[in-house]
Amino acid sequence: MALMGQMMSAPLLISSIIKHAARYYGSTEIVSRRTEGDLHRYTYRDCELRARKVAQALGALGVQQGERVGTLAWNGYRHLEVYYGVSGMGAVCHTINPRLFPEQIAYIVNHAEDGYVFFDLTFLPLVEGVAPHCPNVKGWVAMTDRAHMPAESKVPLLCYEELVDAQDGNYEWPLFDENLASSLCYTSGTTGNPKGALYSHRSTVLHSYASALPDALGCSAHDVILPVVPMFHVNAWGLPYSVPLVGAKLVFPGAKLDGASLYELFEQEKVTFSAGVPTVWLGLLQYVQSNNLEFSTFRRTVIGGSAAPPAMIRALEALDVEVIHAWGMTEMSPLGTSCKLLAKHDALSDADRHKIQEKQGRVIYGVDMKIVDGEGKELPWDGKAFGDLMVRGPWIIDRYYRNDSNPLVDGWFPTGDVATIDEDGFMQITDRSKDVIKSGGEWISSIDIENVAAAHPAVHMAACISAYHPKWDERPLLVVVKKPGAEVTREELLQFFEGKVAKWWIPDDVAFVTEIPLTATGKMQKLKLREQFKDYKLPAA
Ligand code: ADP
Q1: How far is the CA of 67 from the centre of ligand 1 (A)?
Q2: Topology of 437-532 in CATH?
Q3: What does residue 10 show for φ and ψ, rounded to 5 degrees?
Q4: Whether the predicted model's global pTM rises above the 0.70 cut
């Protein structure tokens, strides 16, 4: 007969995280740059009380458990209150990326059937543009106080502070099944319509535990954590949950994500740890280097979302900042792997250590991965064989929201990434399958090419895409933005590749541009570049 364990049964609910932070780290601060222009400070205790008032206000508006509530907002304390208020009462917090095209935003709001949408004042013009196309939204809530409400607006608005002030906070977080939906994020949909990943309370709490571990993001109550990655980009990689879970001080940058503003906040609030995509660190690094500055407390950062160029890892290391290279995706809540070295790597030379740090790293407990060939056969872990990367685990999607097709293959989720895995389980992305360059049937990793280019002192940003070649079908074309004031010729750049990659990997040509288009999540938009260069004639072709 089965013998059941005899432990208390407590559902893993998101509200338990903010309750914990308020009770055990009640006086720890949350500091936010507001859209109103000033710096706001309060504590986890204040945050939890106001999150309860948000939950009450939603109840008063008639929001039901399971109903979707959208947000169009920067990283800030009110957004955090909405995160906890909405999920905590049993509704679904649907974060929308305001950098998407208005048509995509309207599509997402309608697809999710958001009942209410909370937005920062920055996005009023956006709201006015999409509201007429979103007939099912019952109310648009401006996240500010009465004094800062817009004098006029084309859309009837509710005032966030008035909604909160009308409540007394006398509210108990409800208990319910941990498998209920808690939040919703859409992939940015570089091709086709965006697809929704619907997280549960259980998946979110498990992901928060795992991502706080020392070999993952390594968050602790000692830290001051500033998520640069937006709360509308896969829940800021879970930091709004894992930071309160460990009781660290939380700093929110609001809308100001330029190098100077970030540096000022890092120094002023004594930030120790941060997280963001490579393009953000480009701006911050440029500011710090060109002004000969140092970081006095900032010591660790997570870089993910796209490959962290080795030159960036080393530049941050020179400033005494350890880079934790991490990989994941919206469908994975998002964390899958992080690149923390093993004890056996301690004795490595700097050069050998850097080679490992360029990898996307080891899985965190909870995630299982494998690489497979075209027939679905598992490939060896030798650091050389590359194939389609597949994952499974309790915070990885089973299916997309309101979509009947099954995305899984034999119970595994195909990531769309191509990767190698070495003997120690360190995974390295060689490409997104749609970005791989297929030259004469052989594959060239666009990421490898970009990593070499990014190490050239005159290169600000580099993207490698395929260009048509009559003999080889595709050949690599390097698209480069130079650093301000820097000079480099096509020949010099191509020469720079000699000895760094196989000869036949060296790009056929270099195109200098003033700007590389970025996606809504700050990644180089290679699809658009490929369109832009679709008629490009390679010199050898
Ligand atoms: P989208 O790009 O559509 O917004 P995600 O933010 O979920 O979607 O992006 C997930 C993808 O980003 C991964 O499948 C992978 O291709 C890429 N990615 C994420 N982290 C890394 C990394 N550290 N190195 C290389 N690619 C990465």
Answers
A1: 29
A2: GMP Synthetase; Chain A, domain 3 (3.30.300)
A3: -130, 120
A4: yes
